[in-house]
Amino acid sequence: MATYDAFDQNVEINGQTVLTIVEEAMGTFSDEYRDRALAALAAEGITDPTADEWYPQHAWLNAFETIAEDLQPHVLDRLGEQIPRVADWPNDFDTVPEGLRSIDEAYQRNHRGGEIGHYRFESVGEQTGEVTCENPYPCPFDRGLIRGVAQQYAPVDAFVFIEETGETCRRNGADTCVYTVYW
Q1: Yes or no: domain 1-182 corresponds to CATH 3.30.470.20
Q2: Residue 127: enclosing H or E segment and its boundaries?
Q3: For residue 142, which of 118, 126, 124 has the smallest C-alpha distance?
Q4: Secondary structure of the chain: what % helix, strand, coil (to 5)?
Q5: Fewer Cβ atoms within 10 A, N terminus or C terminus of the chain?
Q6: Grouped pLDDT means (10 residues each) for the chain, 183 residues
Q7: Within 10 A of 173 (CB to CB), how many other CB atoms are there?
Q8: Which of 88, 96, 84, 57 has the alpha carbon at shortest distance from 141?
Q9: DSSP state, residue 172
Q10: What is the DSSP secondary structure assignment for residue 161, as one 8-state letter?
Q11: Which residue stretches of 10-138 are H helix?
């Protein structure tokens, strides 16, 4: 499975998520970035997205790919990092492991209609864990997302570091990437 290819053509993404990412996350970079994201969505048939609608994930992923090509992949890393601050996110906890486990809950809330994939967290040390990402989103986006969540719940004096440690990678056609997170 290649990055940006939905696991199932029936999967949809919540319109509120689309709006939040485009308006709040991309909009924090610049109006130009927000406008480019809206143009990429429009090219995929998503014009004037609304919060209470659901949109095809494959169209959303195609727009993501256009954004990465147009604005460079590092934008996806920074975008992922902002998601826990701007999206509807579970927040009834205060530790890094709980925060990293919440990624899957938030992902499941905002996608529906078939095999969407998942995020799995496993603690492997006192301040170390592994997150397995089995989804069609690009690696830079997931790295940023994981870092953003870990930073949000890590102690103030902690340095959050993430490295890809799995034997497979979506960039190379696999379905999963594994990241080790230190905090």
Answers
A1: no
A2: none
A3: 118
A4: 50, 20, 35
A5: N
A6: 84 92 83 91 94 95 90 84 83 93 95 96 97 95 96 93 94 93 98
A7: 11
A8: 84
A9: G
A10: E
A11: 15-19, 27-29, 31-43, 57-71, 74-86, 96-109
Amino acid at site 166: G
Distance separating alpha carbons of residues 106 and 15, to the nearest angstrom: 14
CA contacts within 13 A on the Cβ side of 99? 21
- Residue 162: CA count within 13 A, CB half-sphere: 22
pTM of the predicted protein model = 0.92
Q: How far is CA 128 from CA 65, 131, 170, 180, 183, in A?
A: 31, 10, 23, 7, 7
Type of residue found at 169: C
Looking up tokens 């997150």, which residue turns up? 131
What is the residue extent of each domain of the chain? 1-182
